[in-house]
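ok so I'm stuck.
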Amino acid sequence: MTKSAWRRGIGSVSNDGVLRKLRRKHELRVLTILVERGPCSRRELEDATGLSRTTMSAIVADLVRRRAVVDDAQRPASNRGRPTTLIRLNPRAASAVGVELGRGHISVAVADIGRSVLAHVTEPVVADRGLPARMDTALALLQSVTAAHKLELDGLAAAGLGLWGHHPDPEIDSGDPAGDSVVAGVVDRLRAALGVPVIWDHNIRLAAVAELRAVELSARADLVYVALSHRVGGGVVINGALARGASGTAGEIGHVSVDPIGPPCWCGGQGCLEQYLTVNAMLARARAVAPDVVDVGSLVSALDRRDSAAIAVVNWSGELLGRALGMVVPLLDPRRIVIGGELADLGEYLLGPARAALARQKLSIRDRRLEVDTARIAHGAAAVGVALVALDEYAPLHDLNAE
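replied:
not stuck anymore, here's the structure
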């Protein structure tokens, strides 16, 4: 081979590689648009990507051939013309199962490759049941849910587990529960039952992921999630990524001190938010001034009928919540703060005073862009969150268009 022929050969190989890389980039863009927008026509995909009709036709045909997408949906014509064929992700290309073993509930969810939640069910369980017993119940619930929704799970790529009271070590792979035999047992049980890789994390952090995906259009949004339940927990999402911290406890806002001379906390601190904003602590204070309050529902009823004593208790609690958030917001500057857990049912009665406390904290840089609201997913959010995280880990979009 002459030197010039050798150079032409190298150039050809190099050009082929560049073209393949560009083609995969275009394919990934098409798949991402289908995730974000749902089924689209070829014309809509052309407009969104800037690709020509010929190029888009070739890309769609190849993705259909590889079963990454299907073109079996149609949009009725607005006039007497022909209906428009729509391209959508093939839901059987991959799916994931999420399981949450909470303190007083279990939840299961199934999500497909398009990040659509196909099923999500939550049931209460006795709080003192151990993790192995809860896992048995969760697997039975998953079986009944998939049967009821006629879900085949033939493209199951992974599963995820959200656990109350357990934090994985961020220096150990999230699929490896080394060092915790109880967690290892339930992870192995789920892995054996489904025959796929399993990841796990703390359930409150996973609820933060679910809440982000349920509301935000941007994949790189920021969010602080606070769960006010039988304990106070939290999760932080920064630039679309779940923050874990050096020791795996990032977001534990329950142990921010809101009263330096308050009661001692089991964590070693004093006046921690968890001493005031748990369900039991809130109800105990409310019951002392409004004896008919027996649960969160009856507390809401007392607030609705304008019971001044109950309102004073919740106003003070909202002030304390605002103090804790006031320590978090200047550090992270999130766009949204989401309040979940049973006490989120107090709604504006709690959030109003918390917002007022935050509003008193002024920064001279610019007006704060912050929304404070209750969670969109009321119960079992971690099952949804961990199913989506499992898809991100084991079925990323760039794998869909691989040969």
